[in-house]
Design goal:
The protein is α/β, with parallel strands linked by helices and 156 residues long. It has five helices and ten strands.
Length: 156
């Protein structure tokens, strides 16, 4: 349907729009491109590659590439996990690495940012605790736009 393809386009745009609102630690790998990696294959993956062309982030060109099985994601700044993949194994591999994980709603396990569709609007939840576990800081502006934020409490 047209509405679902529009939603997918919005989700792909969101992935790129999140970048300026996220701070990666200095320990994040220094690569010649700003790598957005994808796991699985859905419409968002296709649209993401198209919309990232000729875009840049932090003065680097944005490169979108699919992760192949067993390939380390260490040089990825963002990993988008498509809706056709079980996120859990991917999230476990990436845990405690400075990588922004983005998942679609529907699975019990979620990344730092989870994209959702509410009515006909695309929204997102942010797990701020997960982000801080992974050394990533998300700007208060983006947190303010989230549908729901999981806060990290101290001593947990």
């Amino acid at each position: 349907t047209d509405s679902s393809s529009l939603e997918d386009a919005v989700k792909a745009t969101f992935v790129l729009k999140f970048i300026p609102f996220v701070n990666w630690p200095s320990s994040a790998p220094n690569t010649d491109a700003f790598n957005i990696c994808t796991e699985g294959n859905d419409k968002v993956v296709v649209l993401l590659a198209a919309s990232a062309q000729s875009q840049s982030a932090d003065g680097q060109r944005i490169a979108v590439r699919a992760l192949t099985t067993g390939q380390p994601a260490d040089d990825c700044r963002i990993v988008y996990i498509a809706s056709d993949v079980a996120p859990q194994p991917v999230l476990e591999q990436l845990h405690a690495k400075p990588i922004l994980t983005i998942t679609q709603s529907g699975a019990n396990e979620h990344g730092i940012i989870q994209l959702l569709t509410l009515g006909h609007h695309v929204a997102f939840d942010i797990d701020a605790k997960l982000a801080s576990d992974d050394g990533i800081t998300i700007s208060s502006k983006l947190l303010g736009l989230a549908h729901y934020v999981t806060q990290g409490g101290s001593g947990q």
